[in-house]
Amino acid sequence: MKTTKAQHSHNPLSVILIVGIVIFTAILGTRMTIKIIQRRVLQHRAAEFIATQQPNVLRMGSKKLYSLLPDNECLSRAHAIIERYAQQGILNMSAGNQCRMNSARLETMMCLFAVESNQEAKVYVEECQVILDKIEELEYYRAWKKE
User: Fold this and answer.
1) Alpha carbon distance, N-terminus to C-terminus of the chain
2) Backbone angles phi, psi at 129, to 5 degrees
3) Nearest alpha-carbon partner for 85 in 31, 138, 123
4) DSSP H or E stretch at residue 87
């Protein structure tokens, strides 16, 4: 049995639909890949930050410099969050973790205010703040978009 050209022709609408699905899937996959790469870069940046020597002025007790917890070093909550992210590469945005993130943000702002005259400590605290902001941004995206 011989087939005619009319039997092999495709509906133009179905071809457009298939091409659209392929393009949409490629874009979505690229976007997810970019987020995964951003998380890996941030995880590496967090590990480098934790490995960096903390300036001496930030090692004072809470009586001399601000800390949310008594007898802890300044930025203790922020360090705990960043260290956890550096080890695990993920931070679920549960209510408890959001509370820890907010207290770490308060801690960094108060430390930044306390060390504004010490340039080395100021740069260190600002880097801590940037890493916390980026962790929160990426983890909120992951939590809400369900990657």
Assistant:
1) 50
2) -65, -45
3) 138
4) helix 76-88
Q: What is the DSSP code (8-state) at residue 114? A: H
- Integer Cα distance of 41 and 84 in angstroms: 15
pLDDT in tens, 22-31: 777 777 667 6
Can you give the pLDDT at residue 9?
59
- Per-residue DSSP letter, 53: P
CA distance 117 to 122: 8
95-116 burial code (b ≥16 CB/10 A, e <16): eebbebbeebbebbebbbebbe
Tens digit of pLDDT for each residue in 75-128? Answer: 888 888 999 999 988 888 778 888 888 888 888 888 888 788 888 889 999 999
Length of the chain: 147
Residue with tokens 């009586």: 63
Closest CA to 78 of 67, 70, 90: 67
